[in-house]
Specification:
about 350 residues, Phosphorylase Kinase, domain 1, Aminoglycoside 3'-phosphotransferase, Chain: A, domain 2, six-stranded antiparallel sheet, three-stranded mixed sheet, 13 helices, about 45% helix
Length: about 350
C-alpha cells in the first residue's frame, strides 16, 4: 500500500511508476461505482493526458473486458466530458464507424467523480466497452492516411449535421488557445531543449501563422466540432471494420486542422506529401474542401507542430516526449525556416 496522503506538488515530482501505483488505487475505488468487482484485473494501457486501464473480470468470473479512463485533473469540466460521450454515442447510432460505447455507473451517470487519498485531487472517471482491433499497418503509411481521410470526412459530416439535445460544450482550438500564453497544452516556449536563441527563431513564425489561420475564417463550412487528434494510433481495424478511439481532445476548430493532427510527430518524414495526397483523395470523395483550406494546409501543419513543442514541454515525463527529446524542438526550427521561406 502506498503511503498516504500526498500533495499535488509531491505527486507531480514522483516518477511515472510511482504515480501509477497511486492512480491504480483510485481506479480500484472507481470500479464498484460501475458495478465491477473491486478485485478485477487492472492493467495500464496508456498514461499521458489520462490514465487508461484495461479491466478484466477476476479469475472464475464471467463478463466482458472494459476500459476505464481516469481523466487528467483540471483538463475537462464534467459537462465537456458529457459532450464527448454524447458525440461518441451519436456516431455509434448514425454512422458505420465503431467507437467504444460509454457505460453508465450504477447511478445512471456516465461520468463518476472519484477521490482516493493516494492521489491529491478528485478525478473524473469514465467506463467504456473494450474495442478489439489493431492500428493500421504502419509499413504502409500512405494507405493508412487514405483510411484516415475517409474516417475524418465521416466525422466532419456527422458533426456538421449533429443537433444534440444539449449544447456542444468542448474546448476551442484556435491560434490563441494553442500558442497563446495560456494555451491548452502549455507554452511552446517551454519545449524541450529550448534556448533564448531558439525562442527568438521560432517566434518569427507566429505572426504569419496567426494571419494565415485567421484568413481561413470561422464559417460553419470550415470550423466546427472535430476529433483534433485523429492519427493512425487512434484507429483500430478488426475484420474489415474501423473503430475510432480517444476523443479526449475533440473540440471546436478548423476541419482542415484534423489533417495536420494526422501528421503529428512525422512532419519531417519524406512520405508527408504522399500522405497528404492520400488523405485528401479519400476525404474529398465524401466532403469538399475549399481552395482556401487547401492552400492553408502547410500553415496548419506548422501550427500543429508548434503546439506539439508545447505538449512535449509540458509532458516531459511521458514516453512520447522522451522519445522526441530536444531534437523535436531543433527540427521545428528547420520547419519554420522552410515555412517562412514560402509564406512570409
Amino acid at each position: 500500500m502506498t503511503k498516504l496522503p500526498i500533495t499535488a506538488a509531491a505527486f507531480a515530482a514522483l516518477p511515472t511508476h510511482a504515480q501509477l501505483r497511486r492512480v491504480e488505487q483510485l481506479a480500484r475505488q472507481a470500479l464498484p461505482l460501475f458495478g465491477l468487482p473491486p478485485d478485477s484485473s487492472v492493467k495500464i494501457l496508456n498514461y499521458s493526458e489520462n490514465a487508461t486501464y484495461l479491466i478484466t473480470p477476476p479469475a472464475g468470473s464471467t463478463g466482458p473486458r472494459r476500459v476505464l479512463r481516469i481523466n487528467r485533473p483540471g483538463y475537462h469540466p464534467r459537462a465537456f466530458i458529457a459532450t464527448e460521450l454524447a458525440w461518441v454515442n451519436a456516431l455509434r447510432r448514425d454512422t458505420p464507424l465503431l467507437t467504444a460505447e460509454p457505460l453508465p455507473g450504477l447511478d445512471g451517470e456516465y461520468v463518476q467523480h472519484v477521490w482516493h487519498p493516494a492521489v491529491p485531487e478528485p478525478r473524473h472517471c469514465v467506463l467504456m466497452t473494450f474495442v478489439a482491433g489493431a492500428e493500421p499497418d504502419d509499413t504502409n503509411r500512405v494507405a493508412s492516411f487514405a483510411l484516415l481521410g475517409e474516417v475524418t470526412a465521416r466525422l466532419h459530416l456527422h458533426a456538421a449535421a449533429w443537433k444534440p439535445a444539449q449544447p456542444i460544450l468542448r474546448e476551442r482550438w484556435d491560434f490563441d488557445t494553442m500558442l497563446g500564453p495560456d494555451g491548452h497544452w502549455g507554452r511552446w516556449q517551454n519545449g524541450l531543449g529550448m534556448t533564448p536563441a531558439i525562442q527568438r527563431h521560432l517566434a518569427r513564425v507566429l505572426p504569419v501563422l496567426r494571419r494565415r489561420v485567421e484568413a481561413v475564417g470561422y464559417s460553419r463550412a470550415r470550423f466546427g466540432l472535430i476529433h483534433a487528434d485523429l492519427r493512425a494510433a487512434n484507429l483500430l481495424v478488426n475484420d474489415g471494420r474501423v473503430a475510432v478511439i480517444d476523443f479526449d481532445d475533440c473540440g471546436h476548430s478548423w476541419f482542415i486542422y484534423d489533417l495536420a493532427a494526422a501528421l503529428s510527430f512525422i512532419e519531417t518524414h519524406p512520405d508527408v506529401p504522399a500522405c497528404i495526397e492520400a488523405w485528401l483523395g479519400a476525404y474529398t470523395q465524401l466532403r469538399t474542401l475549399s481552395k482556401v483550406e487547401l492552400a492553408a494546409i502547410p500553415t496548419f501543419i506548422m501550427l500543429r507542430r508548434m503546439l506539439l513543442v508545447a505538449w512535449i514541454g509540458s509532458h516531459a515525463d511521458t514516453a512520447q516526449a522522451r522519445a522526441m527529446g530536444p531534437r523535436f524542438t531543433t527540427d521545428t526550427c528547420a520547419l519554420a525556416d522552410d515555412y517562412l521561406g514560402k509564406f512570409n
